[in-house]
Amino acid sequence: MIQKSPDMRALTERIQETSHFIKDINSELEKVIIGQKMMIERLLIGLLSDGHVLLEGVPGLAKTLTISSLAKVIDTGFQRIQFTPDLLPADLIGTLIFNQKTGEFTVKKGPVFSNIILADEINRSPAKVQSALLEAMQERQVTIGEETFMLDNPFLVLATQNPVEQEGTYPLPEAQVDRFMMKIHIDYPTEEEEMAIMRRMARTVKPQALKPVVSPFTILEARKVLNDIYMDEKVEQYIVDIIMATRNPAKYNINKIEGLIDYGASPRGTINLNLSARAHAFTQHRAYVTPEDIRAVAYDILRHRIVLTYEAEAEEIKTEDIIEILLKNIQVP
After folding, report:
1. DSSP labels for 104-147?
2. Where among 198, 219, 240 does a domain terminate?
3. Is 156 part of any domain?
4. CA-based nearest residue to 120, from 168, 189, 57, 29
5. For a Cys staple, 157 with which of 52, 113, 190, 272, CB 3.0–4.6 Å?
6. What is the spatial distance between Cα 138 and Cα 133, in angstroms, rounded to a whole number?
7. pLDDT of residue 166
8. SS3 state at 303
9. Is there a domain that residue 10 lies in?
10. Structural domains of the chain, count
């Protein structure tokens, strides 16, 4: 099917007008968050693409602060759930409570009934609790007793993992991690950022409170506009080539990683790479997707979707190394 090119001038004006709130969000978050621009950008991409995000990083890198601050500036509900080994699915989704006066059961909804959910240290809870959250993420509904309840919209799960400790944790299976649109690695701040953090945060009085600058309605409308962002057929093929190369690198003459990949990216990877590239273009106030948009988000989309072989692990090859080789060897349109 031949795509019909849109009126790019009109579309560009529309995108620039619609995406103006991105600057407002960033300006407001800068009052509290120092650095971590990549994390903020990826969280916005997840929010715009209606995709959940898995954050991995050592404690103290402002993951919780950034997520709660984002909820404040977009004026949505926020719930932080601390995952622990003794957490039960009912603590997450809710349960039925018997009312002695009426002799009937009433529904008590759990913290998952909100807009932005911070699942803190998700790998500290057993599989039953993880599955309850992942089901809510996928189906956007929760069943309590015999009743089914739709979750609020927008609904976004931002889960954190602590890579430092493995004792007493329950790692998410690869098939379940695939439910997350992106997996982001949070790194330490730079020396300049560390100095700024110390000067601003080493105080007994908390920084100024954030104010809402965007409504949830604006986010939902922006999601509709995302579908109109133009993607050329050659750029679409570039996405498919990247995904197919994770499954069969020899077909693309990338023989150096032959035998290092056990499982390649699923079709979810294709869909999410497309959506996140559009969202990245939107955050840059552009009406069209470039290969650079795809390359910018490729690591976050693919790092949890490529399963390495034992040979790769023995050679201490990381998933990021594989993605780098793929992007260097696949022809850019």
Report:
1. EEEEEE-TTSSSEEEEETGGGS-HHHHHHHHHHHHHSEEEETTE
2. 219
3. yes
4. 57
5. 52
6. 9
7. 58
8. coil
9. no
10. 2
- Please choose, from the candidates 258, 260, 264, 261, the residue with its C-alpha nearest in 3D space to the C-alpha of residue 241: 264
Output the CA–CA distances (angstroms, integers) from residue 131 to 134, 207, 281, 294, in the order listed. Answer: 5, 37, 33, 30
Indicate whether 4 pLDDT > 60: no
Q: Of all residues in the chain, what percent carry a pLDDT higher than 70?
A: 95
- Coil vs helix vs strand at 265: coil
Question: Is residue 66 located within the same domain as residue 148?
Answer: yes
The CATH number for 177's domain is: 3.40.50.300
Are residues 38 and 118 located together in one domain of the fold?
Answer: yes
Domain match, 172 and 53 both: yes
How confident is the model over 76-103, as pLDDT tens digits? 989 999 988 888 888 988 888 888 888 8
CA angle 95–96–97, rounded 5-degree value: 115
Q: Determine the Cα–Cα distance for residues 57 and 125; give it in Å rounded to an integer.
A: 18
User: What range defines the domain where residue 246 resides?
Assistant: 230-329
Separation of CA 108 from chain center: 28
215, 321: one domain:
no
Q: In this structure, is residue 25 part of a structural domain?
A: yes
Q: Which of 177, 198, 219 is the last residue of a domain?
A: 219
The predicted model scores a pTM of 0.88
Instruction: Please list, in sequence order, all residues whose beta carbon lies within 8 angstroms of the beta carbon of residue 179, skipping any fewer than 6 positions away.
Output: 52, 134, 137, 138
pLDDT in tens, 32-81: 888 888 888 999 999 999 999 998 887 777 788 888 889 999 989 899 99
pLDDT at position 43 is: 92
For residue 6, is pLDDT > 70? no
